[in-house]
Structures are given as structure tokens and as C-alpha cells.
Design a protein that fits this description.
single chain, alpha+beta, Pseudouridine synthase, 11-stranded mixed β-sheet
Length: 232
């Protein structure tokens, strides 16, 4: 059975999908079909377009991560949205399930991250080192279960594996993220990190748009969303 795309938002200029942890935004050594290719297929079919279909990549999520990803359907949309992301005029909210609870219920983590290309891993430093980049994130604990904690995260910078590396550095690895210290992998090889919400200004109408991605079909994620709904 063909895996269907979960479209969260679509108009003439943009399309947002809820990425599954198995999806890739950019081609890698596996050779698996990418999300942009699948979106092109979907657009070609839906609008019965005979020629090439445009799908511009604006931002990316790590393969084992789920959640909202935005793509441009026009070059004008791509150019304007690229600028918004570059100028940090968008707002991204992530949810992360961690193995341990941070020492404070909310806080700001400020570190310097240095990427090791060979290992495809970022290392956290408390002070600047050659080749490192400043990384800032804000978090708050919003729910808990017997063994896990749900954190809401807002990024001030967008570094390689930033959330994964910074949470691991305070002893709170993300569930399933063995690369950054989790006890065991998730069965589906995902990590419990979800791009929950994305807000941006529409490239042509200038309207403020906010898109929320439902959490993965997983008992723990469902438990946390129920907990949050009960507490509202």
C-alpha cells in the first residue's frame, strides 16, 4: 500500500506536511525517495500537470524526527520564505520526550556546538572553541509519565542536532536517541522529537500562518496529549 502524505496546509504558494520519522527531506546514502519527490508526485497527480512540478525545500528535519515541514510550490514563495527562515522571522515549537527531568522546570540552555562530520554528531562545549557555533534554546516541562517527561522547546538558533545535543548535555537524552545517550532505541528507530508548530508570514498575502502537527501514532505520545488536554 502506498504511504500517503499527511497534508497539514496547502495553497497556491506553500504546502506543509506532517513528516513521519521514516521520511527524508534530503536525499542520503540510502537512496530512499525524498519528501519533495513525493510531494511533486502528489501535486502532479492532484492537478494533472503534464510537465515538471516545483517543490522548493525551505528547511529540514533530521530523519528520525517527526513533525511539520514547509515546502514552497513557487520560486517566489521559496525565495521569500528562505529569507524569513534566514532572518529568524519564523517561530518553531518542538516537543521532546526525555528520559530524565531537567533540574529546573523551565530554563534556557546556552552552549557552543561543534559538528563532527565523520560521526554526523554535534559536541557541546560550555565556551567557544575553534569551529563551534553558539546554540540557544528555551525549554519547559509541560507533562510527565512514570518514566518520561515532555518538554516544549523553542529554538533561538538552528544548529546541527541542536536539541538532541543540548538536552543530552544536561542529562536528559531524548527517548530513542542512542546517538546522544538514550538507553535504548525506539522500535521504529525514530527519536521522540516532534516539530509541533510552525508560524510564518505567508509569502504573498503577508498573513500570519500557524500550523500544528498532530503527534505520531504512539501510545506515549497519545498519553501526553491526553494529559495536556485534561489539564487545560
Amino acid at each position: 500500500m502506498k504511504d500517503t502524505l499527511e497534508i497539514l496546509y496547502e495553497d497556491n504558494h506553500v504546502i506543509a506536511v506532517n513528516k513521519k520519522s521514516s521520511d527524508i527531506v534530503q536525499g542520503d546514502k540510502t537512496g530512499d525517495i525524498t519528501l519533495p519527490d513525493r510531494i511533486k508526485e502528489y501535486l502532479k497527480e492532484k492537478y494533472q500537470k503534464p510537465g515538471n512540478v516545483f517543490c522548493g525545500v525551505i528547511h529540514r528535519l533530521d530523519r528520525p524526527t517527526s513533525g511539520v515541514v514547509l515546502f514552497a510550490k513557487t520560486s517566489k514563495g521559496l525565495e521569500r520564505l528562505n529569507k524569513q527562515f534566514r532572518d529568524k522571522e519564523t517561530n518553531k515549537v518542538y516537543w521532546a520526550v526525555t528520559e530524565n527531568e531537567p533540574s529546573t522546570k523551565n530554563g534556557t540552555l546556552i552552549n557552543y556546538l561543534k559538528k563532527n562530520e565523520g560521526q554526523n554528531k554535534s559536541y557541546v562545549h560550555s565556551t567557544e572553541v575553534p569551529g563551534s557555533k553558539k546554540a540557544v534554546l528555551n525549554y519547559k516541562v509541560i507533562a510527565s509519565s512514570d518514566n518520561y517527561f515532555l518538554l516544549e522547546i523553542q529554538l533561538e538558533t538552528g544548529r546541527h542536532h541542536q536539541i538532541r545535543a543540548q538536552l543530552s548535555s544536561i542529562g536528559c537524552p531524548i527517548k530513542g536517541d542512542v546517538k546522544y545517550g538514550a538507553k535504548r532505541p525506539n522500535k521504529d528507530l525514530s527519536i521522540s522529537l516532534h516539530a509541533r508548530e510552525l508560524s510564518f508570514m505567508h509569502p504573498t498575502t503577508k498573513e500570519q500562518i500557524s500550523i500544528t502537527a498532530p503527534v505520531p501514532e504512539d501510545p506515549l505520545w497519545k498519553y501526553f496529549t491526553q494529559e495536556l488536554n485534561c489539564n487545560q
